[in-house]
Amino acid sequence: MKPRLSQNFLFDPSILRCIADAAGILPDDVVVEIGPGLGTLTKELLNRAGRVIAIEFDEKLYRALKEKEDPGRFEIFHDDALKFPYNELGQFKVVANIPYHITTPIIFRLLEEKGLRSMTLTIQKEVARRIAARPGGKDYGVLSLSVQYRGNPRIAFTISKGAFRPVPKVDSACIRIDIYKKPPVQVQDEKLLFALIRGAFSQRRKTIENGIKKLCSNPAEALKKAGIDPKRRPETMSMDEFARLSDEVGKLEQ
Q: What's the CA gap between 239 and 243, in Å, rounded?
């Protein structure tokens, strides 16, 4: 085990079954497991999926699972999940116990993939709450909006830190994110939308008008046309409101 890789293993069969159940795996599914570790979750996935592809960065763990490969059913790759060629897989689902230190990069990397259908991830509970957060709460922010633009997240259940070995410092949660065929809002410029979101939440204690000043020459006018009170805080704004604001800013800055 290598602490630098944030490896915390689950062994409880009932929890492993619950994770696999939460993923909604069908017999013809291709499932990608990131960081299979000792292969305890892998067994549950193989009981449900048509094909399981595991990606393991730790060479020792990779070698142990390599001996269990089953052509056409189970393949394991010694690779970095952030660099893996997912585009070669067609449609696939991801089920994984993600190392805490790469949770956000992995999620953003996967959201780029057109073949991704869903992610069912065991991650730090606080991060899961941020992903699933709705407007109005302290957990709502850039991560919430970035993920919810691509998919619909739902926390399936929480997992006590005592269920892992070695025991981590925090509790975890199993979250499922079903990927949309198209985003829930339509915008003229996605890059501008997320630049506005990042700008707004970089100063979340300030009003939305102050938060977007660096990106808009006349924020008060853009907000007025979008039907948004300039004194509101960014954490109160919905995805739809940010989309409207993005389009109005785009028009003003043309």
A: 6
Query: What was the pLDDT predicted at 1?
Result: 38
Residue 24: CB atoms within 10 Å: 15
Query: Do 130 and 9 sit in the same domain of this protein?
Result: yes
* Nearest-angstrom CA–CA distance, 99 and 73: 25
Q: Can you give the C-alpha Rg of the chain in angstroms? A: 20
pTM, 2 dp: 0.93
Structure tokens at 116: 């991704």
Contact indicator for 212, 197 with CB cutoff of 8 Å: no
* Residue 212 tokens, joined: 């977007």
- How remote is the C-alpha of 113 from its chain's centroid? 12
Domain boundary among 120, 146, 179: 179
What range defines the domain where residue 49 resides? 3-179
Q: Which two tokens stand for residue 207?
A: 């009003």
The CATH number linked to 226 is 1.10.8.100
Question: Please, which residues have CB within 8 angstroms of residue 215's CB and are 6 or more apart in sequence?
Answer: 192, 195, 196, 199, 249
Residue 185 lies in a domain: no
Number of domain units in the chain: 2
Q: What is the pLDDT of residues 112-159, one digit of tens each?
A: 999 999 999 999 999 999 999 999 999 999 999 999 999 999 999 999
Residue appearing with tokens 């990131």: 34
Q: Are residues 133 and 231 in the same domain?
A: no
| Whether residue 23 is found in the same domain as residue 62 | yes
Cα 70 from chain centre: 29
Report the alpha-carbon distance of residue 228 to residue 244 in Å, rounded.
Answer: 9
Q: Which pair of structure tokens corresponds to residue 93?
A: 């689902």
* Contact assessment for residue 106 and residue 83, using Cβ atoms and an 8 Å cutoff: no
Question: Identity (one letter) of the amino acid at 22?
Answer: A
